[in-house]
Design a protein that fits this description.
The complex is a heterodimer of chains A (about 400) and B (about 260). Chain A is an alpha/beta fold. Helix content of chain A is about 45%, strand content about 20%. In chain A, strands 3-4-14-9-10-13 form a 6-stranded mixed beta sheet, sandwiched between helices. A 4-stranded antiparallel beta sheet of chain A has the order 1-2-12-11. In chain A, strand 5, helix 5 and strand 6 form a beta-alpha-beta unit. Chain B has a single domain, classed as TIM Barrel, CATH 3.20.20.70. Chain B has a 9-stranded parallel beta sheet. The chains are: A alpha/beta (about 400), B alpha/beta (about 260). Chains A and B meet through strand 2, helix 1, helix 8, strand 11 and strand 12 of A and helix 3 and helix 5 of B.
Chain lengths: ~400, ~260
């Protein structure tokens, strides 16, 4: 067992033998790169000048007043391409270039990571192929068009359930055949070591900025930080700089879909058990035979049956709490944020908002929380309007 | 404790024969057909790999993915695969049987319980394509009690300096993936593959088998003087599918391949 690949009993490198040398090469290149001031300067240059960082830490005034505690929003929705995904893509693509790779591949569910990867590929003139389940290609036509405009090839994956986990399977298969010239950019805090570590490193900018920004205004640490969690990339980014600050409560918000007691949810912490998928050991939704179950959430970005291994570890050690929020609760929070603050969030991020409102009720006016607003809702307008039409909100 | 794979490898060596190994997904199209396909190869095929269907087979190409998917829809599972092996043994099948499966199927069952059940049912070996050398400790500890079930090691053309480490304590035979990537790709053998196979052979104390992309005994002619046998998976599944999973087809194919491979 390669102990540096593990978070407690989670993580590891459960891949075919043909990828083991590749992972070793990536691990070495990554560890060198993050110690190379020139590489990090380049990464931060693009975050500032291309992505538009730093993103604001906004005190949501009306919501804070209504719920009786300070609610700060970390505005990852204001990043170029509309979500936090670009932070990680730029880090990994710069690493790919440094390693001499000429092609990149990526998996995508809703298309946000695919769009970010296609964007990075256009910026750095690399060939990009994005694997996307056939179902998702149909559901997310707009993002497919964006990726193609950016010059990426989108492969509609037809196997298994035709969704994100199958797209990931196909990306892994392609990678095993082409690793010599191709770098696989994983978008979430999942995958074999060193991927969960890389994704955390390149998303940690979220909490690094937020911690400093909160200190500038409040002169102290926040009491609570919170983020939505599918695979866990924005969540680990939001936690990263606070994990070693025991006074800060860490909360990850899972998608409970139609409810954790139904068969239609994506709550791998609440309802899953440990298993091995996509290269690492973590909590997974699986049936009694060990086959992976389909996840469900109104938010395509949280619609994944697993979760990153470090989150599984933070869960078991009690350092972080993970709580479920249903489709309905998330959509109510989405409307509330939209109407009260003039911010239309991604449905993913609305899950974190929904729990923020619950949590705020236990907090006092002089306490504060930071909620990671991981993405904007532009991509979700069709889903939102269909939902609202059914619910009659806007009529 | 004796192991049927090790015994068969010893017997082949003594007779100076090459091994012939087939792969079929357990429960495709149902367990009864799988049983007949296995029985038809008794005395011909040296080892049979039974693929245990899994929802997310990342090391398999489209043919075995589809086979796995259909088998699951048809109700196949690890428990039913154990029942299949138990029945085959009860019916007098003596040939070595190997489970090819993904690691989550094992951990979900429970590693200790899984190994006990393999020992009891008569599963002689395991091939776990998503369990590389560094992650094998838990499974090896459970298997170590006896040699009734052994873990087969896989190596690939890009394993390079990892090969001696992987082969040091390998048991039964070594499974050489002949090309990069997943099962079922076209036979595309070149000089590098020959160098790789020679390197594996030099480092191996046990027989060396080649798999991925083989259809007929002729496909392995270029490396016949290096390797000790061939594994046919994807092509065998296609063949069975084209012939309505008739046991007779399996028998004819095994008989031809086994006789041809020893003429090379």
């Amino acid at each position: 067992m390669n102990s540096k690949a593990y978070y407690g009993e989670y993580g590891g490198q459960y891949v075919s033998e043909s990828l083991m040398n590749t992972l070793d090469e990536i691990d070495k290149a990554f560890e060198e790169a993050i110690r190379d001031p020139e590489f990090m300067a380049q990464y931060h240059y693009y975050l500032k000048q291309y992505v538009g960082r730093e993103t604001p830490l906004y005190l949501a005034e009306r919501l804070s007043e209504k719920y009786g505690t300070k609610i700060y929003l970390k505005r990852e929705d204001l990043n170029h391409t509309g979500a936090h995904k670009i932070n990680n893509v730029l880090g990994q693509i710069l690493l790919a270039k440094r390693m001499g790779k000429t092609k990149i591949i990526a998996e995508t569910g809703a298309g946000q990571h695919g769009v970010a990867a296609a964007t990075g590929a256009a910026l750095f003139n690399m060939e990009c192929t994005v694997y996307m389940g056939k179902e998702d290609v149909a559901r997310q036509a707009l993002n497919v068009m964006r990726m193609e405009m950016l010059g990426a090839k989108v492969v509609a994956v037809e196997s298994g359930s035709n969704t994100l986990k199958d797209a990931t399977n196909e990306a892994i298969r392609t990678w095993a055949k082409t690793a010599e010239d191709t770098f696989y950019i994983i978008g979430s805090a999942v995958g074999p070591h060193p991927y969960p570590k890389m994704v955390k490193e390149f998303q940690a900018v979220i909490s690094r900025e937020a911690k400093k920004q909160h200190f500038e205004v409040e002169g102290r640490l926040p009491d609570v930080v919170m983020a939505c969690i599918g695979g866990g990339s924005n969540c680990i980014g939001m936690f990263a700089d606070f994990i070693d600050e025991p006074s800060v409560q860490l909360i990850g918000v899972e998608a409970a879909g139609k409810g954790v007691d139904t068969d239609e949810h994506a709550a791998s912490m609440a309802k899953g058990r440990p298993g091995v998928l996509h290269g690492s050991r973590s909590y997974l939704l699986q049936d009694e035979d060990g086959n992976i179950q389909l996840a469900h959430s109104i938010s395509a970005g949280l619609d994944y049956p697993g979760v990153g291994p470090e989150h599984a570890y933070l869960h078991d050690t009690g350092r972080a709490q993970y709580v479920p929020i249903t489709d309905v609760e998330a959509m109510d929070a989405l409307m509330e944020l939209t109407r009260m603050e003039g911010i239309i969030p991604a449905i993913e991020s609305a899950h974190a908002m929904a729990y923020a409102f619950k949590k705020a009720k236990e907090m006092t006016p002089d306490q504060s929380m930071i909620v990671c607003l991981s993405g904007r809702g532009d991509k979700d307008v069709n889903t939102i309007s269909n939902y609202l039409a059914g619910k009659g909100y806007l009529n | 404790m004796a192991n049927r794979i090790i015994d068969r490898m010893d017997a082949l060596k003594a007779a100076n024969e090459k091994a012939f190994i087939t792969y079929i997904t357990a429960g495709l199209p149902d367990m009864e057909h799988t049983a007949q396909i296995v029985k038809a190869q008794e005395g011909l095929t040296d080892v049979i790999e039974l693929g245990i269907p899994f929802s997310d087979p990342t090391a398999d190409g489209p043919v075995i993915q589809q086979a796995s998917y259909e088998a699951i829809l048809g109700g196949a599972s690890l428990k039913k695969s154990f029942a299949l092996v138990e029945k085959l043994r009860a019916d007098g099948v003596k040939m070595p049987l190997v489970f090819m499966m993904y690691y989550n199927t094992i951990t979900s069952y429970g590693i200790e319980a899984f190994v006990k059940e393999c020992n009891r049912a008569g599963v002689d070996g395991l091939i776990v394509p998503d369990l590389p050398f560094e992650e094998q400790e838990d499974l090896n500890n459970a298997l170590a009690a006896n040699d009734a079930t052994i873990l087969i090691q896989l190596v690939s053309p890009v394993s390079k300096d990892r090969i001696p480490m992987i082969l040091e304590n390998a048991k039964g035979f070594v499974y050489c993936v002949s090309s990069m990537g997943v099962t079922g790709q076209a036979a595309d053998f070149h000089k590098e593959v020959l160098n790789y196979l020679s390197y594996v052979k030099e480092n191996s104390k046990i027989p060396v088998m080649m798999g991925f992309g083989i259809r007929t005994a002729k496909d392995i002619e270029p490396m016949a003087n290096i390797i000790d046998g061939a594994i046919v998976g994807t092509h065998f599944i296609n063949l069975m599918r084209e012939n309505d999973f008739k046991a007779e087809t399996a028998k004819e194919y095994a008989s031809t391949f086994k006789s041809d491979i020893n003429k090379l």
